[in-house]
Amino acid sequence: MNAATPDRSGLLKWYPSRWRERYGEEMAAVMEDFLDGRPPSRRFRASIAWAGLRERGHETGLFGDSGPAGARLRAACLLVLCAWSAFVVAGASFAKIAENFDLAVPAHARALAADSWYTVSLGAVVAGTFVLVGAAMAMPAFVRFLRSGGWPSVRGHVVRAASSSIVAVAAASGLVALAHTLTPAERNGALLYHPVVWYYLVAFIATALVVGVSLALWTAAAVATASRIVLPEGVVSAEAVLALAVAGGMVLMTAATALWWGAIGSSAAWYLQGVRPGSPASAVSTNLAATMALMVLACAVASYGVVRILRSWSELRLA
């Protein structure tokens, strides 16, 4: 790759390392010929990034059917784990939106809203427990991986995730301290009547972003580690069962969130808009719509993982 500039060579990092070792020089030469001295455009960078990510998906077993069924089964479980991480972010957003909703909903609509909220809460606890059980089942293999000298291959992922956690804890601590200086109305976004809370809103959004990045980095570390450890077939099958349960829980919680939205929107839409109680208001909430969209997207990714799990299981049985 001596003919490629560092900028263009960096584009190859989208591809997996084994692919780069085999095809990297040839790909760099093709890029040089295509660009003919011009800087890579955004469209060119995006096409290279997409092709590299697709190749990573094929290598890990997320796409295609060329790899071993066992490897694809484990990759499908990791895909559900990634979907769950995104769903946790959406769940945290829903928890914030639904804060103290029971004080706003009329008695005749309170039962449906409360039952929906409890379904989401219970589903989060159960699905989260399944994720922890899956992590515990993989722990012996992880210990063997570390003893065999595998730490350097995942050290970067873990260090980045741990560093982000320190920042997230500091940000959350500052947010809690700031919240104690405000009234419940000011903390809950009553911006029309308490304009001073704008700085709390900024701090809350910044903290949420930091926590989300930390969660994404830990998920990346978990995926990188899980793709390198050797799991017994029985453990992989058990992980697949847990992944199916988590995916089903995500769908159930998404449906419950939609029911909660309907109950609140039909009886206390003003609550969703943060305006004075009883005021005319739309049931369409931008924050809740974004939360639901993330939930649906996470469910779609998890469903794809479920399809991969069932397909891989079928092939393993036939083999």
Structure keywords:
globular; mainly alpha; 11 helices; 78% helix; 319 residues
| Number of self-contained structural domains | 2
How far is it from the N-terminal to the C-terminal residue, by CA? Answer: 42 Å
Strand percent estimate: under 5%
Rg (CA only): 23 Å
Low-confidence stretches: 190-196
Order of helices and strands: HHHHHHHHHHH
Shape: globular
Helix-and-strand structural type? mainly alpha
Helical element count? 11
The pLDDT mean sits at: 85
Relative helix content? over 70%
> The biggest beta sheet, please?
none
Number of strands: 0
Description:
- There is one protein chain.
- With 319 residues, this protein is mostly helical.
- It has 2 domains: 48 residues, no CATH class; 242 residues, no CATH class.
- 78% of the residues lie in helices and 0% in strands.
- The protein has 11 helices and no strands.
- Helix 4 packs parallel to helix 9 and helix 9 runs antiparallel to helix 11.
- The longest helix has 41 residues.
- The two termini are 42 Å apart.
- 26% of the residues are buried.
